[in-house]
Amino acid sequence: MNDTSLLERPPASRFWSPRTACAATLALVFLSGAVVGALTWDLAVHNRQRPLAFDSPQAKALYFDHMQKELDLTPAQAEQIQSVLNDFWQYYRTVLSDGKQRVEQLLDEKQRQKFERLLQQQQPPH
User: Fold this and answer.
1) Backbone φ and ψ of 49, nearest 5°
2) Exposed, middle or buried, 37 (CB in 10 Å: 0-12/13-18/19+)?
3) What is the pLDDT of residues 54-69, one digit of tens each?
4) Dist. CA 17–CA 11, nearest whole Å
5) Minimal CA–CA distance to 86: which of 123, 67, 61?
6) Who's near 67: CB < 8 A, 6+ residues apart?
7) At what angle do helices 75-106 and 109-122 cross, to 10 degrees?
């Protein structure tokens, strides 16, 4: 058994100078902040949602629901407006397709491949 009792041990302040204790505390606070910041950044980057494509089914439904609530549409109005919006979205897809074909006709094969990659980058995840 050890002859030194708990009361005879030197106080902890003898092991840590105030300057060392302050430096260690600041280092721990800094490292804790860095870890929390890195985790928060990682979650924000990986959980970021890309905006919905204008004519995706989800965007259409959200837009129509918003219109229906804001304008307080009757069932007959809602049906007619839904038809008009469907016509608009069909026209939109046709214009995009036509524009894409016209641009592709102006490009060589290498440029068309790059153009296709650019378009794919704009697509929302499915």
Assistant:
1) -100, 135
2) exposed
3) 677 888 888 889 989 9
4) 11
5) 61
6) 73, 81
7) 150
CA distance 30 to 36: 10
Sign for the pseudo-dihedral over CA of 58, 64, 66, 69: negative
Instruction: Report d(CA 75, CA 68) in Å as an integer.
Output: 9
Task: Render pLDDT for 21-34 as a digit per residue (tens, 0 to 9).
Answer: 788 888 888 888 88
Give me 73's structure tokens.
């549409």
Contact call for residues 65 and 58 (beta carbons, < 8 A):
no
Are 118 and 110 in contact by the 8 Å Cβ rule? The answer is no
For residue 19, give both structure tokens: 């300057």
The residues near 71 (Cβ < 8 Å, ≥ 6 apart) are: 77
Say if residues 26 and 32 touch (Cβ distance below 8 Å): no
Answer for the pair 59, 52: CB distance below 8 angstroms, yes or no: yes
Query: Which letter does DSSP use for residue 11 in this model?
Result: P
